[in-house]
Amino acid sequence: MTTQSPSGLEHKFCRFDGEVALEDGCRIEGYASLFGRTDQGGDVVAAGAYTRSLERLGKAGRAVKLLWQHDPSQPIGIWDEVHEDATGLFVKGRLLTDVTRGREAASLIEAGAIDGLSIGYRTVAATKDAEGRRVLTELELWEVSLVTFPMLPEARIGAKAEDRNDTLCRELAEIFGAARQTLAAAD
Fold first, then answer.
1. Is the pLDDT confidence value at 104 over 90?
2. Which residues form the Prohead serine protease domain (predicted)?
3. If 0-12 CB within 10 Å is exposed, 13-18 middle and 19+ buried, where does residue 82 land?
């Protein structure tokens, strides 16, 4: 889904596929956007769409913000690394557990309750393809948020975990996931 605020900032929602784990309770990494994939709003982000924006941010000494649910009053961490590669927009960062929402986000991710990423951006240039999809060719990236409802199901986030508690959390998540599937099949 794409939403637009009165200021013109758009939000694109992406889903965490696969298991999410936290390193030291706060490190996360993955893809906030995948090139060439059609999202649920019918948009496709083209390779290179973030290049100029990331260059401008770097030259200005600024960074892409890590927010909670696109709320600018609730920064929850820092993206230490944001770059494009052949796959899409890769992000790597830290949830700040000294911040209340950062602690809550870490707990929600570990429990499997939060499984989405969403990019906040302004469209600079776009075209329509033969199928009528909007192809986003240049974006001004403002932020990447952790969100409840994702837009691009194929987008992935993963993280590194080296703690026995993370293994236990993953095992519990698998058990609960199997239970959910069993309950859904029974309906």
1. yes
2. 24-163
3. buried
